[in-house]
Amino acid sequence: MNYTIHKDFSEINSQEWNDLLKESITNTPFLRYEYQRAWWGHRGGGEWKDAQLVLISAREDEKLVGVAPLFIAEYENQPALLLVGSIEISDYLDVITRMNDHARFISGLLDFISAENLPNLDWYNLPDTSATLAALQSESTKRNWSYHQETYRPTPRIPLNCGFDEYLARVEKKQRHEIRRKTRRAEESGRGVRWHISAMQDVESEIDSFLHLMEQDANKANFLRDPMRAQMREVIRAAHENGWLWLAFLEADGQRVAAALNFDYDNKLWGYNAGVNRDFMDLSPGWVLLGYTLQWCCENNRAEFDFMRGDEEYKYRFGAVNQYVMRARVSQPAT
């Protein structure tokens, strides 16, 4: 494999990148070319002030066989080589390569990183099922390098591939009753409760509506500082333009009272963020919209609803089961 460092996303063809991602060991919306480029353009909504892009590609006979989207930044008082997307707003990250090429790609990548005198690796948000974890550990052992792995965050998800009634039957009895009761109460309230998936006819207006509902929560309002707001806008636009945005609104009394921003990607729905109008909490708008969302997943044969990072209690009430994302660190001996 011939490895090359790129200093700009324009140096790698977007279609070639995304075609490889479809066959990669980890295929998530956060690894799509357009997401990665948007994230880098805003440095994760201002998460990283000073950073240097280090996109590493590997080719065989001119064919792209691997991408390690990386950047260098000062982290925990020392320079580190991190995955583009780290840390806070990209729930799943990894290298991009096919399973048949993966072991060779990781081995060659570590040799290349060492030869180029790049910093030590500190990789967040690797899925606990990723082959990259074992490969990094194995290659570190061979080289007598230091390897450390830890569980970073839970990522609850609901397995589906079933009808909505079957899904509800899997949920604990008390919670199943609550889901049905809250939905029925909203529908019978006489307040015109309805939901719809946005057609995004006026993209900027729909983004405004979503962000307005999101910032009703004080913590989310603080999160949505100007750089992060710009980041969110670009990510939503990119998802819409490339066909994997799923944005839904719940209405009552003629106004939008809840929103769900999801990614419809690789036959599953990824729950990225949400917002509710606090003046309508008597209708349990968040629960009701989530119930409609899961019903849509069942009716449209989505295999899973992924809540992504975070262990909020409501996720488990809806039947989510934990998986995890990991942090892996690889350090060369000091010279």
Indicate the overall shape: elongated
Rg, Å, rounded: 21 Å
Secondary structure: number of strands: 14
State the domain count: 2
Quickly name the level 1 CATH class of the largest domain. Alpha Beta
Strands in their spatial order, largest beta sheet: 8-13-12-11-10-9
CATH architecture of the largest domain: 3-Layer(aba) Sandwich
- Low-pLDDT residue spans: none
Which structural class fits the helix and strand makeup?
A: alpha+beta
Instruction: Report how far the terminal alpha carbons are from each other.
Output: 27 Å
Helix content: 25-40%
Calculate the mean pLDDT score and round it: 97
Query: In sequence order, what are the helices and strands, one letter per element?
Result: EHHEEEEHEHEEHHEHHHEEEHEHE
Q: What can be said about the biggest beta sheet?
A: 6 strands, mixed
How many DSSP helices?
Answer: 11
CATH topology of the largest domain: Aminopeptidase
* Name given to the CATH homologous superfamily of the largest domain: Gcn5-related N-acetyltransferase (GNAT)
Give the strand content: 25-35%
Q: Would you give an account of this structure?
A:
The chain is of the alpha+beta class. The chain is built from 11 helices and 14 strands. The strands form 3 sheets. A 6-stranded mixed beta sheet has the order 8-13-12-11-10-9, sandwiched between helices. Helix 10 links the parallel strand 12 (268-276) and strand 13 (304-306). It is elongated and about 70 Å long. The model has no long low-confidence stretch (mean pLDDT 97).
